[in-house]
Amino acid sequence: MNRREALSAIGWLMGGAVIGADLLVSCTSRPLQVNDLFNQDQITFLNEVSDTILPATSSPGAKDAKVGAFMAVMVQDCYTPEDQKVFMEGISQLDEQCEKKNGKKFLECDTKQRTAFLTALDEEQKQYMITKKEGDPNHYFRMMKELTLLGFFTSEEGSTKAMRYVAVPGRYDACVPYKKGDKAWATS
Amino acid sequence: MAENVYDAIVVGSGISGGWAAKELTEKGLKTIMLERGRNIEHVKDYTHTNKNPWEFPHRGGRTQQMIADYPVLKRDYALNETNLEFWVNEKESPYTETKRFDWYRGYHVGGRSLMWGRQSYRLSDLDFEANAKDGIATDWPIRYKDLANWYSYVEKFAGISGSKDGLPQLPDGEFLPPMDMNCVEKDVATRIKEHYKGNRHMIIGRVANLTAPLQNRVNCQYRNKCWNGCPFGGYFSTQSSTLPAAMATGNLTLRPFSIVTKILYDKDTKKAKGVEVLDAQTNQTYEYYAKVVFLNASTLNSTWVLMNSATDVWEGGLGSSSGELGHNLMDHHFRAGASGVAEGYEDKYYYGRRPNGIYIPRFRNLNGEKRDYIRGFGYQGRAGRDGWSREIAEMSIGADFKDALCEPGQWTMGITGFGETLPYHENKVSLDKNKKDKWGLPVLAIDCEIKENEKKMRKDMMEDAKEMLEIAGIKDVRTYDSGYAMGMGIHEMGTARMGRDPKSSVLNEHNQVWDAKNVYVTDGSCMTSAGCQNPSLTYMALTARAVDHAVGEMKKLNI
């Protein structure tokens, strides 16, 4: 079992029983550290956040594409220390804000509550980015949303099941009919 | 024959070096090609070419470590995860920026022929006569008629796809069938042609990608992953094209990890007798001898070799007698243009990833027009449908948002100008003896900038783009100037220019160094002016022509 498969197995175990997720982890031992920044609990959390942003519909959702683990890699390897700090603090802030609004943590909310909460948080993020001055920190939910889109739409699940992907097109047809509902090409 | 003696030496293995090796070996000369970097074998060493996007841990992006390791490459799109190993190790090979100069290098067999943009255009007499007519710099010693047949010769072998358009400023060539424009591009091209009554044209890019099989190469598979190296040989590179031809003669020796540190000049014969090589792995020094040396180390590195070949005869370096060695550095300035939205094509799409766009050849300062600047620019661009990274203003998160992003977005079309940079004497490179590279060799100091002529041109590059797109029916057209620093065009040219007079040029009309006639320089450093067309095809043609001359001179015992 490689690391990703291991994550997937844990994610599956926890997926149905979100209410007990925190409890489950605290009962066992310290959560498994995945890299310098993230532990397994946080990846589970990010999987759920990403899956609220891009849920399974007729095609797989962000959790199916293991976007939580992808975010952990990207934040650790590609973010500046400042952005890393914003992102990591954002994980707790998201939960705190959620608790204020719904009286419970994000993972304890049902799908409807999660969607409503993140829709409001996305509006906050958009307003913040409009008024943000140069040098001000980025908004953590902007980061989570961007990484979710990148992680999902460039994943195998996103590319091949939510969109269309042809590794070797073999030819170029410059002008073909398109009808509403046809999937986009995954890469340009 | 001693071990280190050849008929010909080629320094560098990129686009022009590969051509020199092919031509020299096919004419029967025992040739050694010296490449400073590692070998990259065709197909076998294209490590990432068959990877899917999700097989890259950062999906092609850049890590903080990469940003720290590549202080120059990070300034533009080139720093990425998918072909990082094709770009120079900047820590091993630093240079000095007296003024900012973005130098994008590939130190390996094939050089930048592996990562190049592949746009392939002929220069015309509009370009070859420009310096003389404007009374600047020095006149090109050749005209279009001197190069026309050589363009044909290299096009047929390299494989350039394109349309014949009958434009005097952009001569037609020996083309493979053109790639197609998509629905939006076709309509925009038609409207531009109608509105400007045939004085402005939008054509499909002429590109070194095969639209039909050629030699042992398979035609382009429309993956648009050229810069990873192509396992089909679908585009021209040293590896796919010139190197196998040279190898097939049995006359080529390829020596990677061979940094040519100087050309060995013989005062008595007034010719080069060979080159000195520093083995990049062992740090051992070797000498190689030959009757003729082709210097194809890339624009600035060929000049570096000449400068580092200083003797008591030529203190400023071999070829320095005119005082022009290192001067007149040029590039193409770009990143200014316009883009907008095409409406009414919601029922149209495309299949395949075309590694090519459209081209709008130069139309300014033609036919007697006089702008407040001289020369001109061409546009590259494309139309396409937005992908998942688009903003959907009215949507936030959730199922509808996701399903909307899984469908293609609106059509957009953008064009970016590529403008001519003038050859200014004061735009120059020199040896910085206070800074050394990994091998203890002095590095180049680069001191250049664009001036008023280019800055004025950039305004037209934006405004003309807007006007043409609007006339073609594109909506919400916005202009942009994303800023430009010299070098970003990755079209560095000049510093060892051709000319008619040894007092004002480094090379003669056959690309021979005036001061050592058996040394030919046929990469971008030979350029006397820049034109606004992508220059690599011209290097190919000049190289083939110069080899033909060199072999003739050897037969006549002139060199």
From TrEMBL, chain A:
InterPro entries: Gluconate_2DH_su3. The keyword Oxidoreductase applies. Keywords: Oxidoreductase. Its EC number is 1.-.-.-. It is an enzyme of class 1 (oxidoreductase). GO terms for molecular function: oxidoreductase activity. This is Gluconate 2-dehydrogenase subunit 3 family protein.
From TrEMBL, chain B:
SUPFAM superfamilies: FAD-linked reductases, C-terminal domain, FAD/NAD(P)-binding domain. It comes from Pontibacter silvestris. It comes from the Bacteria. Residues 60-332 form the Glucose-methanol-choline oxidoreductase N-terminal domain. Belongs to the GMC oxidoreductase family. InterPro entries: FAD/NAD-bd_sf (IPR036188), GMC_OxRdtase_N (IPR000172), GMC_OxRtase_C (IPR007867), P2Ox-like (IPR051473). Keywords: FAD, Flavoprotein, Oxidoreductase. Residues 423-542 form the Glucose-methanol-choline oxidoreductase C-terminal domain. This is GMC oxidoreductase. The keyword Flavoprotein applies.
